[in-house]
Design goal:
single chain; 461 residues; mainly alpha
Length: 461
């Protein structure tokens, strides 16, 4: 049966030796880069599930898609066919995740400062939403909570600045403590909304207990964990076990290594799966001339997934190869990595340009790794304390990542040894074969020569 994979976004070889095999669909929560850089190279648009960043936009019992990317937490799995769904994700170090969440909230909120006031910005947003076919950042968890909050802060501080107090040089040097321009980081991490959404966010996401959870009791559980910290260990254990069961776990801080492993582990399996489905489709298209009424339901579904995946598609029609979306089942893992190198460079440039444009409105604020290093150590330690569960989960993810690397390296080494052994065997076999052929040729020549002499001898008599 064809299986699906899901890619979780956490704000998260020889395939023959892997214990976890790709299922029918991929569910990927929390990290956009894999979809942009890899999965879109492997799946056609018709094979990608409708964007479900704000809510589930398709019937999970009959999905005409094979790739779902979402910001929902793991509780979304309760709505998907578990036996047909694989989950992959990337985790980020807790400190970097808090920095990134703060920076992106400010960056997106700053885009609204083109408006004269907060009222104008919110009214424009309401007018544009019904006309937009896409999903706005303001509809996506957790930004639908964080960006409006930060937007209100930016407008309030801009209005206050109009009073005219000049910023001190000390404030200008510390991007994360420009209180006249934006909420300082040390204030941000202590706000109630940060405690509810950001701190230990990766653990609660993998456990399926965020404030965006499909589980009604999730709020009560989070409240209990904050009140009785020892209860967090139970949530942490659930999250660890779920990571253990995922097809692939990557690390944002090891992005290049994660990308390579993703291509080898997940990409290779997807390519194999797509090639198999493409072959099945071609065979059916060549052999069947009438309606496919005799096909099993899952076979018809496979064909539909490779064709258009539209709701009004008629089941049972002969697949038309010419109308099928161009798939990339013939691409290799090496070509996938080449495409990644090109794409990541372009993506980083576009992100840098967009961020610079947004931050112009709150100049001289400028987020960077260098600026992060200027944040006081006591603030960093507080972030680590507030995210103690995520610290432990990240260590567990690092162990999984290291084990994945070991399996991959061992598998590749085994393949290399087998190839060398095969080549070593080929040379002696070739030599033996040539020697045998030469000997056979010599024997045949001698037999022919002897027969020729006998005939000559008879003629003389």
């Amino acid at each position: 049966m064809r299986k699906t994979a899901v890619l979780f976004r956490f704000v998260i070889l020889s395939v023959i030796i892997l214990e976890l095999a790709l299922k029918e669909a991929i569910y990927e929560p929390f990290q956009h880069l894999h979809r942009q850089l890899f999965l879109r190279k492997l799946y056609t648009s018709s094979q990608e599930c409708p964007r479900s960043y704000d809510k589930l936009r398709f019937d999970p019992s009959k999905p005409n898609c094979r790739l779902m990317v979402t910001h929902d937490d793991y509780s979304m799995m309760s709505k998907l066919p578990k036996e047909r769904t694989s989950v992959v994700t990337i985790l980020r170090s807790p400190v970097d995740r808090v920095f990134s969440t703060y920076e992106f909230s400010v960056e997106v909120a700053a885009r609204f400062l083109v408006h004269p006031n907060l009222s104008s910005a919110t009214q424009m947003t309401r007018r544009l939403k019904p006309k937009s076919r896409g999903v706005s950042t303001l509809d996506i968890w957790p930004w639908k909570y964080l960006v409006p909050w930060m937007r209100e802060e930016l407008f309030a501080r801009r209005d206050t600045r109009k009073g005219g107090r000049a910023m001190e040089l000390r404030e200008i040097a510390d991007t994360y403590n420009m209180r006249d321009i934006m909420m300082p980081l040390h204030v941000f991490i202590n706000e109630p909304l940060a405690h509810d959404i950001i701190h230990n966010g990766a653990t609660f996401q993998v456990a399926g207990l965020t404030n965006n959870s499909c589980i009604e009791e999730s709020h009560k559980v989070r409240h209990c964990v904050r009140k009785h910290s020892e209860l967090g260990q139970y949530v942490l254990e659930v999250a660890k076990k779920r990571l253990d069961q995922m097809l692939y776990v990557g690390l944002t801080e090891n992005h290049k290594e994660s990308a390579t492993m993703f291509a080898d582990v997940v990409g290779a399996q997807i390519l194999s799966q797509l090639q198999e489905l493409a072959n099945q489709q071609k065979q059916l298209a060549d052999n069947v001339t009438g309606p496919l009424s005799s096909l099993q339901d899952h076979e018809t579904e496979d064909l539909n997934n490779l064709q258009s995946a539209t709701d009004d598609q008629k089941n049972g029609e002969v697949p038309n190869v010419e109308n099928v979306d161009a798939t990339n089942e013939n691409i290799t893992v090496a070509q996938l990595m080449e495409a990644y190198e090109v794409c990541i460079s372009s993506l980083r440039k576009s992100q840098a340009v967009r961020r610079a444009s947004s931050l112009k409105r709150i100049s001289p604020a400028k987020f960077s790794k260098e600026a992060r290093r200027n944040v006081p150590e006591n603030v960093i330690q507080q972030i680590l304390t507030l995210n103690s569960l995520d610290v432990e989960l990240y260590k567990h993810a690092q162990a999984i990542f290291a084990e994945q690397q070991k399996l991959l390296i061992d598998s590749q080494s085994k393949e290399a040894r087998l190839k060398v052994t095969y080549n070593d065997l080929q040379c002696p076999l070739l030599k033996v074969s040539l020697a045998a052929m030469a000997l056979l040729f010599l024997l045949i020549s001698m037999v022919l020569l002897i027969r020729s002499r006998r005939r000559t001898s008879k003629l003389k008599i």
